[in-house]
UniProtKB/TrEMBL annotation:
PANTHER family: HYBRID SIGNAL TRANSDUCTION HISTIDINE KINASE J. One of its GO terms (biological process) is cellular hyperosmotic response. This is HAMP domain-containing protein. The lineage of its organism: Eukaryota, Fungi, Dikarya, Basidiomycota, Agaricomycotina. The keyword Calcium does not apply. InterPro entries: HAMP_dom. It comes from the Eukaryota. Residues 66-118 form the HAMP domain.
């Protein structure tokens, strides 16, 4: 509309305010979409000519985006390291609320995995290489229980008890290992029975033609 005097000044002020609000809304919306939806974590809003509350809002939006970027990247760095077998990293970024819960969960997971890896490695070395057959892993975890159970069975088998098998529900490569150990135990048991039978026939009963069947 055509106005003059103070109304013209008011018109200019209102139109300027509308332009700034439009620019502000557009920039903030862009940052929200990029950070919250598209995963572009380094996005920042840059609105020229805003002051006061609008400048504060712009600053807060940028701070939020920056904090979120630092938090997500820190957690991502740690989880990537875990996937690559590096259990020495933890999330150190300063966070609050649900992000703090996530940070503590990730760090706890890394600590437990590190302890588990160390304990399983120790038991494997003791049982498989050093011959310390009573080795046990001390971590409260289902996988640890499975490892300990297998270690106990290997100890029994090494001590001559071939009646024990691994009675636990497993999957994947651990299941394959269980089946291998159980199969080995069964074969050794049959072999021991045959050797005992031949020894009894030849050495006790005097049946000199006794032969052990080939079972292995």
């Amino acid at each position: 509309i055509q106005v003059e005097g103070e109304m013209s000044t008011l018109k200019g002020t209102v139109n300027s305010m509308v332009d700034q609000l439009s620019a502000f809304a557009s920039k903030v919306t862009r940052v929200a979409l990029e950070v919250g939806t598209q995963g572009i974590l380094c996005s920042q809003a840059r609105v020229e000519g805003v002051q006061g509350t609008w400048a504060d809002l712009t600053l807060n939006v940028n701070k939020m985006a920056s904090n979120l970027t630092d938090q997500v990247r820190s957690i991502s760095e740690v989880t990537k390291a875990v996937a690559l077998g590096d259990l020495g990293k933890v999330v150190n970024v300063d966070v609050q609320g649900e992000m703090l819960d996530l940070k503590m969960t990730v760090n706890s997971m890394v600590a437990q995995l590190s302890t588990l890896a160390n304990e399983v490695t120790r038991v494997s070395l003791e049982v498989g290489i050093e011959g310390i057959l009573c080795g046990q892993a001390y971590v409260p975890d289902v996988l640890t229980d499975n490892v300990n159970l297998m270690a106990m069975n290997w100890t029994s088998q090494a001590g001559g008890d071939l009646t024990k098998k691994i009675e636990v529900d497993l999957r994947g490569q651990i299941k394959e290992l269980k089946e291998t150990v159980d199969g080995m135990t069964e074969s050794l048991s049959l072999f021991a029975d045959e050797v005992t039978r031949v020894a009894t026939e030849v050495g006790t009963e005097g049946r000199l033609g006794g032969q052990a069947l080939r079972l292995l």
